[in-house]
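Supplementary notes for students who missed Thursday's class. We covered one full example, reproduced here. Read the sequence, then the structure, then the short commentary at the end.
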Amino acid sequence: MADRSAPSCHLRLEWVYGYRGHQCRNNLYYTAAKEIVYFVAGVGVVYSPREHRQKFYLGHQDDIISLALHPERVLVATGQVGKEPYICVWDSYTVQTVSVLKDVHTHGIACLAFDLDGQRLVSVGLDSKNTVCVWDWRKGKLLSMAPGHTDRIFDISWDLYQPNKLVSCGVKHIKFWSLCGNSLTPKRGVFGKTGDLQTILCLACARDEVTYSGALNGDIYVWKGINLVRTIQGAHAAGIFSMNACEEGFATGGRDGCVRLWDLNFKPITVIDLRETDQGYKGLSVRSVCWRGDHILVGTQDSEIFEIVVHERNKPFLLMQGHCEGELWALAVHPTKPLAMTGSDDRSVRIWSLIDHALIARCNMEEPIRCAAVSTDGIHLALGMKDGSFTVLRVRDMTEVVHIKDRKEAIHELKYSPDGNFLAVGSNDSSVDIYGVVQRYKKVGECIGSLSFITHMDWSSDSKYLQTNDGNGKRLFYRMPGGKEVTNKEELKGIQWASWTCVSGLEVNGIWPKYSDINDINSVDANFIGQVMVTADDYGIVKLFRYPCLRKGAKFKKYLGHSAHVTNVRWSHDHQWVVSIGGADHSVFQWKFVPDRKLKDTLHIAPQESLVDSNSDESDSDQSDVPELDSEIEQETQITYRRQVYKEDLPQLKEQCKEKRKSAASKRRERAPGNSIRLHFVHGYRGYDCRSNLFYTQTGEIVYHVAALGVVYNRQQNTQRFYLGHDDDILCLAIHPLKDYVATGQVGRDSSIHIWDTETIKPLSVLKGYHQYGVCAVDFSADGKRLASVGIDDNHTIVLWDWKKGEKLSAVRGSKDKIFVVKINPYMPDKLITVGIKHMKFWRRAGGGLIGRKGCIGALGRTDTMMCAVYGWTEEMAFSGTSTGDVCIWRDVFLIKTVKAHDGPVFSMHALEKGFVTGGKDGVVALWDDTFERCLKTYAIKRAALAPGSKGLLLEDNPSIRAISLGHGHILVGTKNGEILEVDKSGPITLLVQGHMEGEVWGLATHPHLPICATVSDDKTLRIWDLSPSHCMLAVRKLKKGGRCCCFSPDGKALAVGLNDGSFLIVNADTLEDLVSFQHRKDVISEIRFSPGAGKYLAVASCDNFVDIYNVMSSKRVGICKGASSYITHMDWDIRGKLLQVNTGAKEQLFFEAPRGKKQTIPSLEVEKIGWASWTSVLGSCCEGIWPIIGEVTDVTASCLTSDSKVLATGDDFGFVKLFRYPAKGKFGKFKRYVAHSTHVTNVRWTYDDSLLVTVGGADTSLMLWTYEMEGHRDSRQCDSEESDLDSEEDGGYDSDVTRENEINYTIKALSTNIRPMFGIKPHLQQKEPTLDERPPVSRALPQPEKLQTNNVGKKKRPIEDLILELVFGYRGKDCRNNVHYLNDGADVIYHTASVGILYNVATGSQSFYQEHNDDILCLTVNQHPKFTNIVATGQETQQICQLQLLLFTCGMQ
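Structure (token representation):
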């Protein structure tokens, strides 16, 4: 079998040729260490001109387009493009990430700027609103955001002389921003008559509110405040792209190729025209300048970086060059020297020295270049052009040998034969031409087998054959030099290829990911000696595979840096380097090849950290060479927690059913019942898909979860208390280090995490808004201030919270595969680990992001699936338990050793002060010393070890252990079977809690005269439970099949059980031994019932639409009830035992006579008169009201009537238990509703004396007991419900005023229509007749700046006077309240009307105004705290409802 593992050698980025000058500005700076920082493609580069050395920052996964330098000049912020772009702040010295800012911008980040002290960062997005955001970048926290402008913003800067002020500029605007609280407010710059309104490209702030800006026409505009005060005309001959302020003054650079230096008052100092210097050329355009002391850095449009020393300004020094704009496709390497040749659509061919890292030659051609090849002797360089011609140059002096044009379409590939005699030229005309080199490139052959454009070619070593690939993915062979196609497989067998650059063929099968397009991979090159090959693809990734690579989905190592497609990749002649080129980023990357043997020396270099894994061994097919998953884990990964309908959808669904509501509301509905129920005890613990979810609290109680309940169990008194804040399955639980608070995470569309107190059972904090579908792991930090959580969305998002504030600190996508556990480092709360399916990752917080590094396994093995993890005795030690039973010991990110701990997966692990305790699938608890050297003691969970005080029976020996916790001298163990056990250190085991195992529980029956009940489940067990205060399982029996129903005989001695294979049993109710069994049906038995009285008949209903009636005494089938059109769901006998009522899945209510089974039709009025022995039916006029408004979406699955026939309890698919008055006539009856089960409630039954209601949940496997409380019992109504689905319109409803106010709609009329018709013509339009379209809409937004009017420049206009608000009549009382207050001990009154806050002086009768709002104020409050006198907050309505602008203002200080 071919090796599908990743190669053990790797690549290291050594050099990047180029600089991003196109479409970017101000992206080139000196750092404090006098290094130069800039970016190219997706890489941040720190270049040291002194040492001619580069360092790389690889934290981005797409093109970087903006850069800002921190005022201390060590930290750099870079912003990228992409669907979910982020900003990285990184250290230019260590090139490690310091902070990540994300989740706000879309499309890309156009500009960045740090403020004066470097605490805050402003960013501008590329979205349609050009959103401006201000960040506290160290915390990764967004402080403020606002829409920037409707058109592009090109530059933004903090005013370094005024705090909280910013300036931004762009297409035809400049804006002056002030940051107040968390609100950014802009004022547009007024161009007035001083200068033309035009696009501003760059700006710099100076003292005294002066701002200098560079305009598109080459002028410099000088602003004072928000007004344009003067222009410096002709500062440059064309647009000014960059402006840089330093101590000495300002430097500007423009499209005219000049750099100008200005003093602090913007008086010119000098001009440097780069076009006139030695290195200059026509068309040079400056995109970035940076002036430091006597050095100036200049970046150009054509990817060059110049350094100018001021006193030798005519001799700029060229530091860096790259290809200009246009795709870069051509790449060839010299056959004997460390040289690489590249050619691009910028029509230049360049030769790079791989040793000196420099450009050594360049030549401009007539046409864009698409491919290149060097002859075997290294003398000729052939270039294929986009117009179908090719040119051959001498490498020595770049002079032309020949230029030949035989084709009309682009030449995409050319190659010299190994013997140097021929050149094969492949074109987009689908043919390959062969030219003789010695015959001055005369055409000697043609290959015409392809139907599509030629993409790749390789010669055989003896130059006799050529293989080609084309755009259809076809691989063809030709005999050389004639070009005859070879189809004979025998002839092809022995061919040795001189090179391998083809993308299709058996040898390269494995490079194709599953389900990929045949044109995704652009280039391949094989290194035969090293047995590796490198590929380049459309996703910007360079990959390293083993060669040959025969099986699909092989593993690889991948390297990021190129942002868009990588067009070509080649090994250097001696295989020391790999050179790759990027299409759109037109950059050349040089990678150093590090073979296996050298790897050992470099092991101390930690794996490269990045936000996206850049040095991963990840393959696209993950399961390739991993041992089979353990069955339990396999099962668990298959569980989906998605719901068709979430509880969050309920209000919306009800809204949609409004019409039905109205018709129902006309009828008078029954009141909800006066009596209520209270949750009393729950049998069950969620172990089958959760782990480490069981703990001792401070007071020695035990906290765990089942269904939607957090349970605090007191083992001395055998009582439980419940946290009822969740409304769907809880999947994880963690306890605070002080053991008093607990965090639980649940399933939900926008799932929440609740932190609650185990003593008071009250919530302290609820965290929402970041996890979709559910939360599968949580963990507190050692100081208890932070909480980490993992979601079950497709990316298993990891979030770090400050839970008390409810604030998200950081988030990151965790892994595509399931994550089981997250743990925060107890010594450093900024670090955490996650483990999961083939996943062990070490994270550290960086601002709003987390940076992950994979565990480095080295030679010790391969990544296993990890099931649990803990931190050890120092901050860098970590331990993880694998699915194969090993414990891995990690130091930092390195695996140092593994210890065999269990047979089968290690599911749980707990760290003690000295040592560890582990539990596994083998049912053994093991105690270890603190280094995992010695196992000190093991405890096997066996029935024989059960202590007499146990609350139940152990179902099997050695159950799989899912949770372990220590405390109070005991070990607490939770098993997959839903049992909680307490193991005494000396050995005896006490069973405390148990429930059903995985599988739905449907069958439930209560005993006719004892407080016991029976349940039967898909887990193939039948269980008897004691409902008296001892609360325990009395008996259990394993069945051959799962069961869905059960029923006690009227004397309570026999118990009938219906199984899923169509058979049923009658067993002795005490011993559970068989009495009789029958099988007449193939489908599930869905309901089974003894007739009342002597229990003479047994009715057995099945899912194949029949009810069989058996005579219990004679054990014979005596009747069959036919006529149901769907499966049977419910069944009840009448008191006489002569009539059966049946419900079906098609919502039919049918009646049959017993024992023959004859179908009867009974009118509904008669049905009510019949005395029923039980009522568990959900259909009929008596229970019409139990169906909710959204009855189409959800089913009522079960009901049960109390023996006094007054209260009907129901269970439904939403997990609600409801109580209705009986009979529930009329639609949508009122009810009391209780949430504890998570998904569907499958059955409900009252006990014989109605003292308890027993309910079972389907998927949550729990059995819940509810105490029935009479109406007087009002003390603890902790879970009494909202009263009903319908808001009580008919119960008095609203007062008419309130109703009117409730219906006011605050959409702004001004935004949709003109407020009033206008008459006459506005003065400045009076020359021409206005058309309707030209009439400006009335808007409350800030006025647009007046356009310059050219038609009446000569006329003198009277200046427009300012209006000053003097008096306002009116007060807003119609729809507001509590909005008048006294201030200053009654001397003043504050209130509001329209968009004005009014301060009225009682003595003088004068008013003063707060006028910052731009729409109606709706609310007002005064700060009562003595420290904040006269502070008022007002809130307005606005176009975006969400942006409720609360403006705080101080009164009496206007």
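Commentary. The mean pLDDT is 84. The chain is about 5% helix and 45% strand. If anything here is unclear, bring it to office hours.
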